[in-house]
Design a protein that fits this description.
The complex is a heterodimer. Chain A is built from 11 helices and no strands. By secondary structure, chain A is mostly helical. Chain A has one domain: MetI-like fold, CATH 1.10.3720.10. Chain B has a two-stranded antiparallel ribbon. In chain B, strands 3-4 form a two-stranded antiparallel ribbon.
């Protein structure tokens, strides 16, 4: 049996190499000449990098909001809607037919060029919202499926209208799912290279596309510093997301458990 | 399931719900239908149409029916207009299939023992290990490929390490299929470990003991007990790794260099510079067909497995 530390080191060693080289004073990445933080300084003063970061954050923020809302309403309709024709089909469509991203990317490029949509930001926002939706959908659907109808029925019995029920009962209960869905959508959008590379125009370079151009120009210690900062940011974000996801079911179980105990006591 | 069913007759419980969620089906699905229809389904039809359009003189295309995009996969048109068979694109398709298959296999061989090991740990440690395995997946894909570039590249870690061990200086491991495969396995690994882990964890340990009691050796137990019972998880992992691997772009572009292309990087190249859109669209259709054949194959196998338990 393989020891788990060996598999972890396989997964982490390549990332660690980037981090170590980012502190190298030498221009040549592989030759260590001393510790230095200067590449972090030049990375943070790099205007093109900051622009790419801004573009990525803007696109990811809009795509996250759009895809989460679309996924939320789709999940509500599929799980809570009654007598839904094409339920299976609708679910498949939201789940994104399992296609390689490059196919969807060139297909979207063709669509935009036929419609003559030249605005890079608009192209990115539409495409990202579409491919992020399935990722937002899955955790929301899972959470909604695990939620008992009793709560909503109780609310309806107490003369709450639909909107109030949704806002005060359904949404708070499925919030962990909505949060992890949004988080996933955000990370998927920030990470995307294939689609963004084809759709972005001069003024709308995203971070991965900018990093790709840096890699193409040859490895540089500044790139290692940029990469290290991004690795750090993703690990922190991932930890937050996973903690929320891990805590959510436990809380729910606790709640159910308590409800059951209370009911027993009443009896 | 529903505690309320204990106190309230089913009909009264259902009535307000039906009224309450009435017509939600339509309005709730409208946004996703619009977004997915516009940005997902419509483009697929367009790409099918463009694959049979005529290439424009300066990139782009015109709407004249033409199968040149497909014939270019197999034939090269000479100056005098005759078609001669050229295997170069078939080789790219073959390489794509082989590299994606090898990626899936290596990930599977790695993931099964790791998942088995994790599943035998106490709960707290198990959660921590699953978290550790998942974490690198959140790091940007391009950075995970880049990491291998600085390990395998000309001034990279591995050549420098070998140099200090007395091997010739300036060895490069880049720009070949092995480098592409290395990066593909690395980026895909978490996608395999998670579903495999989920299915191995559900595996009932007493069944393995039963197999041993019945004199099944390790190999027989693996083949006749563990593999059939974890097959759904292994299939899910294989799909999650194989399908994106077929469409890989970053790994062949960065690790394989200009000559070691895969279908994904070939499509990207045809659209990137506006080189030949109908040809790129035809390759994309071929890639989609490949994915569909694989998905149908796995679906049929799963159905057969369910039919004969």
């Amino acid at each position: 049996m393989p020891r788990s530390p060996s598999s972890s080191s396989y997964l982490y060693a390549p990332l660690a190499v980037i981090v170590v080289y980012s502190f190298n004073a030498n221009r040549v990445a592989g030759v260590w000449t001393g510790f230095s933080l200067k590449w972090y300084g030049s990375a943070l003063n790099n205007a093109a990098l900051m622009n790419a970061l801004k573009t990525s954050l803007t696109v990811a923020a809009i795509a996250t909001v759009v895809s989460t809302l679309v996924a939320l309403s789709a999940a509500l309709a599929i799980i809570r809607g009654k007598d839904l024709r094409f339920r299976k089909l609708s679910e498949t469509v939201v789940n994104l037919p399992l296609l390689p991203e490059i196919v969807l990317a060139v297909a979207t490029l063709l669509l935009f060029s036929l419609l003559d949509i030249q605005n890079g930001m608009l192209r990115l926002v539409i495409a990202h919202s579409a491919f992020c939706t399935p990722f937002a959908f899955l955790p929301i659907r899972a959470r909604l499926q695990g939620m008992s109808l009793d709560f909503e029925e109780a609310s309806a019995d107490l003369y709450a209208d639909r909107w109030t029920t949704f806002r005060r009962v359904t949404l708070p209960l499925i919030f962990p799912g909505v949060f992890s869905g949004a988080m996933l959508a955000f990370l998927i959008s920030m990470d995307d290279f294939i689609t963004s590379n084809l759709l972005s125009t001069g003024g709308s370079t995203t971070l991965p596309v900018y990093i790709f151009s840096l890699i193409r120009a040859g490895t540089s210690p500044e790139l290692n510093a940029i990469a290290t900062l991004l690795i750090l940011a993703s690990l922190v974000l991932a930890t937050v997301a996973l903690l929320v996801a891990a805590r959510a079911p436990a809380k729910m179980q606790n709640h159910n458990h308590r409800t059951i105990i209370k009911e027993r006591n009443i009896k | 399931m529903t505690d309320s069913a204990l106190h309230i007759p089913a009909e009264t419980a259902r009535a307000p719900r039906a009224r309450f969620w009435h017509d939600l089906s339509f309005w709730g699905l409208l946004p996703s239908r619009l977004l997915m229809g516009f940005a997902l389904i419509l483009p697929i039809f367009i790409i099918a149409a463009v694959s049979v359009a005529t290439r424009g003189a300066y990139g782009g295309f015109t709407w004249d029916f033409n199968l040149a995009g497909y014939s270019q996969i197999l034939f090269n048109e000479g100056w005098t207009g005759e078609l001669e068979f050229t295997p170069q694109y078939l080789m790219i398709i073959g390489r794509t299939f082989l590299l994606a298959g090898a990626t899936t296999l290596i990930c599977l061989l790695f993931a099964v023992p790791v998942a088995y090991f994790i599943s035998r740990q106490p709960p707290g440690r198990k959660a921590a290990l699953v978290y550790l395995v998942t974490l690198p997946f959140w790091v940007s894909m391009i950075l995970r490929v880049y990491a291998w570039m600085i390990i395998l590249g000309k001034d990279g870690t591995l050549p420098k390490l070998l140099e200090t061990l007395g091997l010739p200086a300036g060895m490069s491991f880049m720009f070949n299929d092995g480098a592409t495969l290395t990066a593909m396995v690395y980026t895909a690994m978490p996608l395999m470990v998670l579903p495999v882990f989920a299915s191995i964890e559900k595996l009932d340990g007493t069944l393995i003991e039963a197999s041993h009691d019945l004199y099944g050796d390790r190999w027989v137990t693996l083949r006749r007990v563990i593999l059939p019972l974890t097959a759904p998880g292994l299939t899910a992992g294989a799909i999650l790794v194989f399908v994106p691997s077929l469409g890989a772009v970053l790994e062949p572009t960065l690790m394989g260099g200009g000559k070691q292309m895969m279908m994904g990087s070939l499509i990207q190249l045809q659209f990137g510079g506006g080189r030949n859109w109908p040809f790129g669209a035809a390759i994309a259709m071929a890639l989609m067909a490949l994915v569909m054949v694989f998905l149908i194959f796995t679906a049929l196998r799963a159905a057969r497995r369910e039919a004969t338990p």
